[in-house]
Amino acid sequence: MGRVLVILTTAAAVVACSVATVMVRRRVKRRRKWRKVVGLLKELEESFETPLGRLRQMVDAIAVEMQAGLVSEGGSKLKMLLTFVDDLPNGSERGTYYALHLGGSYFRIIRVHLGGQRSSLEVQDIERHSIPTSLLNSTSEVLFDFLASSLQRFIEKEGHESISSQDVKRELAFTFSFPVKQTSLSSGVLIKWTKGFAISEMAGEDIAECLQGAVDRRGLDIHVAALVNDTVGALSYGHYHDPDTIAAVVFGTGSNACYLERTDAIIKCQNPRTTSGSMVVNMEWGNFWSSRLPRTSYDIELDAESLNSNDMGFEKMIGGMYLGDIVRRVILRMSQESDIFGPISSILSTPFVLRTNSVSAMHEDDTPELHEVATILKHLGVPKVPLKVRKLVVKICDVVTRRAARLAAAGISGILKKLGRDGSVGEGRRRSSDKQMMRRTVVAVEGGLYSNYRMFREYMDEALRDILGEDVARQVVIKAMEDGSSIGSALLLASSHSVRTISNI
Predict the structure, then answer these.
(1) pLDDT (tens digit, 9 = 90+) per residue, 186-240?
(2) Got the DSSP string for 83-98?
(3) Enclosing H/E stretch for 470
(4) CB of 280 closer than 8 Å to CB of 86
(5) Which pLDDT tens digit goes with each residue over 67-105?
(6) How many beta carbons lie within 10 A of that of residue 26, not counting itself?
(7) 200 - beta bridge partners?
(8) Which of 12, 78, 291, 379 gets the most CB atoms within 10 Å of its CB?
(9) DSSP 3-state assignment of 201?
(10) pTM score, whole prediction
(11) What three-state secondary structure class fits 300?
(12) Rounded CA gap, 337 and 162, in Å?
């Protein structure tokens, strides 16, 4: 009996030892996999790093490229497009005007009534609609007929006391968030599509005429009287409320900027024909490129698989259309090199399946167990990940967003440097106490990425203070707006109408 007990005890010890060995091996294996993921995270942080020195080099590069783009066509990656907008609204405008805004993932229609002073601005009606994905690569006729039909329904809702009951032709500003070479305030040809649109036969077509044709086919009594880039509309709205507004930036599906430039600095245009001595320039800064940009393997892969590869490099690092996909690619690579996310999901392998609003929700998840992160990962086909993996995902969102926001701040600082409003003297870094250099400067900002993503805003504001220094940064006001580009386009139309009226007296 004693012998049997010894044998059983020995067997139990062997089994226990074997189990312990297996458990230790599994623990070692898990730790090895975790170290691999931590190494990938460290690599991500290093490759996405934007130290102050690099940001300042980018500021210099942007200012140089701006100048080159003003000197000659094709002289810079920045197109520096003329807008023929020289008289910005000042509050004296009157009348009822319409605007239709075609953006990256949405379109808006508004009606604005102006009573001759700033306090009398009234947005009488506004509609927002998502753009069906089927329209992104349809035909120009399908796209513009869709917009015209939406405009028709908008007008049919108007009451009997609206402009529709009067013997007055409606005037509409078409806010168009894509690169256009304008030939006047009311006309311009499409240079190229961005933000996922791919209607090839429209390149070189007059955008205002396309919409006017669709409107006419429906028998609508509407005149497309202005063609306005969304950044220019935002600048117009900002200037209407605050005359110190000299630039505008959109951080939405894509990103772009415009600013008010002296006409004598626009060398490529020999006769700008402005009475104010200045003109708004549409930078199309999404196409900016510099060797100082922290481009990574994730950016290269995203660019190669996009509809406009080798183009819009800056926008693909800061635009809302792309940040979610960069985060997705990082998670996918970690899944491929480690099983901490479980089996690789086919959903996770789908480009652009992770939207930036989901990145924002994960990044700003303040629940103890990160329930929002878990929910979004489940939608990506990654269920039941432990808390430490969810924390890892939050860190990935932080790294990607921080880079985007700091690059955005460098872009804004580049505009300020070009205008001599960054506090520097000449090409040097010496700060100036000259009041001319330190005067108040307002930059209007619009777009869901900025307005809805708190961490993006905070990182951008922090970077602006780092680049400009506290003294100068205190003089720079970043003013957020909602629907500013649409309302501002209607204001521009009203302003141009006032100028025409005065000139005819």
Answers:
(1) 999 999 888 888 887 788 889 999 999 999 999 999 999 999 999 999 999 999 9
(2) ----S---S--EEEEE
(3) helix 470-473
(4) yes
(5) 999 999 988 999 999 999 988 998 888 899 999 999 877
(6) 10
(7) none
(8) 78
(9) helix
(10) 0.87
(11) helix
(12) 63
